[in-house]
Structures are given as structure tokens and as C-alpha cells.
Design a protein that fits this description.
Shape: globular
Helix content: 25-40%
Largest sheet: 8 strands, parallel, barrel
Order of helices and strands: EHEHEHEHEHEHHEEEHEH
Strand content: 5-15%
Radius of gyration: 18 Å
Number of helices: 9
Distance between the termini: 10 Å
Number of strands: 10
Length: 276
């Protein structure tokens, strides 16, 4: 199965690949720079060469870069929007050193301007960011719908995608905690939720899964991740998710709250044991 966790990028791509193998995974997610924004680590050609060799030898699936949390393409503050656009363009350019992978970001918060305005601003910005030349697929992450977040409903993501000009460069990353907290009943009817996703967006757009349990009840709109099997989604539902034939080929990334690497290693082993 294609499973890994979110790991630190401070040591470079080779280091992230080796840590992933040590933890028992074959994919990973990483921040392109400090999660609160800031300078990105310089890309080293030798580091890239070593990573590509390791990922080929160990048959890694697609890996996922995660944009910083401070990015907001629909902020009412123009300087925030401009910074986000410029930095996303730079991030995607850097992703081309490892071509054909994914770049995930939170769609943004409309900060009181309204959902429709937020959707319009996000899609307009993406049309300035995404180019025909890139091989990287940009992923909109499903959100919990807290506050003024855009992306708490599948329809909102569809509206963004419909307005993006270069549609073969856009996809979705589904976060199990987020959609649970947004009100989608993945505990009792995950197949039904996938049916709805397919009807609204299309399963061909679904490229990656953030596999997280939740500290909150369904429809809480709070977004607090929990260890696998320890939250309100629960082990039984998680097992059904990882074995679902329509998504089991995708990369599954853990963003669960462990204090050390041993916890992640055991959790990866636990999730892999669920696979039938």
C-alpha cells in the first residue's frame, strides 16, 4: 500500500526518503518551506539525484508537497494574496526538480468577503499560478468548514476547478478528518461520500488522501486530528477507507499527532496491517 507521513524537509529529499523507508512507508508529504511561511531551503542537484534513485529503487508512489498554512489566495489583504501567489509560483517551479508529483494547499479563508467572492479570487489566482509547462499537479485540500474557510463542501471545490483554465493540472486531496468534521458521514457511509464526490467533482480528480482520525464528532467544523483508531472516526471506519477499491491505489499520508518517530512507525505498521 502507498502510505507515509508528513515529515520535516530540513535534511533534504534524500533524508526524507531514507526516513520514510525507516518508518516503513513508500511515500511522504513535506512542507516546501517553514509551515508559517518564509525562506525555502535551496535545492541541491546531488540531493535530487540521490532521491530520484532511492524513490525508483524502493518504488515510491507520488509524493506530496504541502504549502505553508499562512498562504491565502482569497484574503481581503492584497499583500497576503500577492505573497501567496508569488510563493506558490516559486514552490511549483521548485517542484519541477522532482517532476510529476503533487503540490497541496488549503484553498483559503474568505475573511468575511463571502464564499462566492473567495471562490472567485482563488480561481483567478490559480489561473495566474498554473502553467501548461509544469508537470506538478496542484491539489485543493478538502476542509472542515471552520470559520470562513473555503472548501468545506465538495461543491465549493468544484466551482474553483470549473473556473481554472488548465484543468489537467488541478486535483483534490481528501482529508478524512476534515470531511468528517465538515459533516460527511464517512463512518457509516464512506461509499456514499465517494459517490457524492464522484457526482460533484469526479473521482478522476482525487489524487491523494490525508488519513487522519478526528478528535471531534461529525459536523463539528473544528479540524483537530487524532491518532488512527483513537478518535470519532475509529478503527473500523479507517479500515474500510484504506481497503476501498476506488481509492486504495492512492498515496495515503498520515498527519496524526504523535510525539516521536516510534509512534509514526507503529502507526504505519498498524494501518498496513488493516489492508486486506
Amino acid at each position: 500500500m502507498n502510505i507515509g507521513r508528513h515529515i520535516s524537509s530540513t535534511g533534504g529529499y534524500e533524508s526524507m526518503a531514507n526516513l520514510t523507508i525507516e518508518l516503513g512507508g513508500n511515500t511522504f508529504q513535506f512542507f516546501t518551506r517553514n509551515p508559517r511561511g518564509g525562506q525555502a531551503k535551496k535545492v541541491g542537484p546531488k540531493d535530487i539525484e540521490k532521491f530520484l534513485k532511492i524513490s525508483k529503487e524502493k518504488e515510491f508512489s507520488k509524493i506530496v508537497a504541502h504549502a505553508p498554512y499562512t498562504f491565502n489566495l482569497c484574503s481581503a489583504n492584497e499583500s497576503v494574496r500577492d505573497f501567496t501567489k508569488r510563493t506558490m509560483i516559486d514552490d511549483i517551479k521548485r517542484m519541477e526538480y522532482i517532476p510529476g508529483n503533487y503540490y497541496n494547499f488549503h484553498p483559503g479563508s474568505h475573511t468575511g468577503q463571502g464564499i462566492e467572492k473567495g471562490i472567485e479570487m482563488i480561481s483567478q489566482s490559480l489561473n495566474e499560478i498554473i502553467s501548461d509547462e509544469q508537470s506538478t499537479i496542484v491539489l485543493l485540500e478538502t476542509m472542515s468548514g471552520k470559520g470562513s474557510e473555503v472548501g468545506g463542501k465538495f461543491e465549493q471545490l468544484r466551482e474553483i476547478i470549473e473556473r481554472v483554465d488548465i484543468k489537467d493540472k488541478i486535483g483534490v486531496c481528501l482529508d478524512t478528518c476534515h470531511i468528517h468534521d465538515a459533516g460527511y458521514d464517512i463512518v457509516n457511509d464512506f461509499d456514499g461520500v465517494l459517490d457524492e464526490f464522484d457526482s460533484v467533482i469526479g473521482l478522476d480528480r482525487l489524487k491523494a488522501i490525508h488519513l487522519n482520525d478526528s478528535k471531534n464528532v461529525c459536523a463539528s467544523r473544528k479540524d483537530r486530528h487524532e491518532k488512527i483508531g483513537k478518535g470519532y472516526i475509529g478503527e473500523e471506519a479507517i479500515q474500510k477507507i484504506v481497503n476501498n477499491g476506488r481509492i486504495k491505489h492512492l498515496p495515503f499520508l498520515l498527519e496524526t499527532p504523535h510525539e516521536d518517530l516510534i509512534g509514526y512507525k507503529e502507526e504505519i505498521k498498524f494501518v498496513k496491517s488493516m489492508r486486506k
